[in-house]
Amino acid sequence: MKLKKIDISLILLSIFAVLLHFFSGNSNWVEQHYSNGLFLTISNLRCLIFGKLGFSFGDIIYGIAFFTLIFFLIRFVIALFQKKVTLTGFLASIKRVFLLCLGVYLVFNIFWGLNYNRLGVASQIGLDLKEYNSQELKSLNALLVEKTNLSKKAIVDNHIEYPNNESLFIQTKKAYDAVDDSFNFFTYKNAAIKKSIWGWLGNYWGFTGYYNPFTGEAQLNTTVPKFLLPFAACHEVAHQLGYAKEKEANFVSYLVAKKYNDSLFLYSAYLDLFFYANRNLNSQDSTSAKQYRELLSEDVKKDIYELVEFNKAHRNFMEPIITKIYDLFLRSNQQPQGMMSYDEVMVYLMAYWRKSGTI
């Protein structure tokens, strides 16, 4: 029986997918030949092209893809009810959908997704990642309270205002330039940080930013409380540089903010890290966790109150569903802790603290 073009395409792409999966199983290969090789070329080229656009091209693609999917689903349901769907036509549609999914899977991994399997930043800076005990976690909470309070005090005492979106994006590029001397693998040549078109939707779905693996753009939800944005911006740029896992992106964001030594960036980083550290401690010792929260300054508590009220105002029935879908996505990409993967930055931070003696 003569194979059709779609069948040949399915066979070829399936073989390629298997080979790609085999390659991804070796973290050394991925680190050397992809993350520090092919990916850097792809990433720099995409940032060079899309970074010059004054809008998020990736967000437009997402919008078109979403409405196209809705259109075809509606058309299929109508055809189904009108009994216009034959078995042959249905099977052909299944093949086309599978071919599309396979194509997206391959593009996703070639453009960025293989970075989930790399050795990563711990290997690059020689961190010994190991579990921490309850006392270490308490000490880290205490230190983060101190750092958070001091950085917030510097903002208040010096009457520092938060920059507009364009200035924030420029400062984020400068922050990465500042850390390049210490960690040359954080080199950020062509900035492509954009204001998300779908930021208003992000408020209801619970995201402050996201990375588009197809266009290489870093999108920021600029409608959230301003003190979250510097850390979020550095986090999304970390994804652009190939640090795919959320815990790694958080840690890279912290290193950049620390080296940049700007009060707004420091406060954003330390406050975010305190949230993770305190949440970890709360799961072990809720009394101690509450005591450390009480040690935060009144100015910091005002910001936390603002964030709590912001989240309350945007609470909705869809958020748990979106969170669950994203949790499954993370688990399927070398992050077995799902949404809790963000909290795993504590392992990196603790290892860095042991090595450097400071945070």
Describe the structure.
Helix content is 68%, strand content 3%. Helix 7 (165-179) packs across helix 10 (246-260), helix 10 (246-260) crosses helix 11 and helix 11 packs antiparallel against helix 12. It has two domains: 5-117, no CATH class; 122-356, no CATH class. With 359 residues, the protein is an all-alpha fold. The model has no long low-confidence stretch (mean pLDDT 87). It has a three-stranded mixed beta sheet with strand order 1-3-2, covered by helices on one side.
Bulk shape = globular
- Range of strand content: under 5%
Low-confidence stretches: none
Roughly how much helix do the residues carry, as a percent range?
55-70%
Order of strands in the sheet with the most strands?
1-3-2
Q: What is the count of DSSP helices, taking H or I runs of 4+ residues?
A: 15
H/E element sequence: HHHHHHHEHEEHHHHHHH
- Any idea what the radius of gyration is? 22 Å
Distance between the termini: 66 Å
Number of domains: 2
Largest sheet, strands/sense/barrel: 3 strands, mixed
Count the beta strands: 3
Structural class: mainly alpha
